[in-house]
Specification:
By secondary structure, the chain is mainly beta. The chain contains no helices and 11 strands. The protein is globular. The N and C termini lie far apart (about 35 Å).
Length: about 110
């Protein structure tokens, strides 16, 4: 299973970006897809995760600003990020869980700066 993430870049505070993730390969017992991030000097943290047949979980820091959309049939997940803040600067990683396995994308850098 390979995950390809895209859409990162440089954006000014208050701006928007859309991240995309596509998973390829055979995925058995698909559980869900989502996004995590790691800012410089900080721990890896959840941004948003959408479990199959369940409720999406968002980090408190992004609620109301970020929206995740997934298509389990296509194994894709998008993250619409609005009202971006400098503290959103991080490498964003896409994740797929299937059975007991977890698959990660290579990460895409989001920089929020004026």
């Amino acid at each position: 299973v390979q995950l390809q993430a895209s859409g990162g870049g440089l954006v000014q505070p208050g701006g928007s970006l859309r991240l995309s993730c596509a998973a390829s390969g055979s995925i058995f017992s698909f559980n869900g897809m989502g996004w995590y991030r790691q800012a410089p000097g900080k721990q890896h943290e959840l941004v948003a995760f959408s479990p199959s047949g369940g409720f999406t979980n968002y980090a408190d820091s992004v609620k109301g600003r970020f929206t995740i959309s997934t298509d389990p049939a296509k194994n894709t997940a998008n993250l619409q990020m609005n009202s971006l803040k400098p503290e959103d600067t991080a490498v964003y990683y896409c994740k797929v869980t299937a059975g007991l396995a977890a698959y990660w994308g290579q990460g895409t850098l989001v920089t929020v700066s004026s």
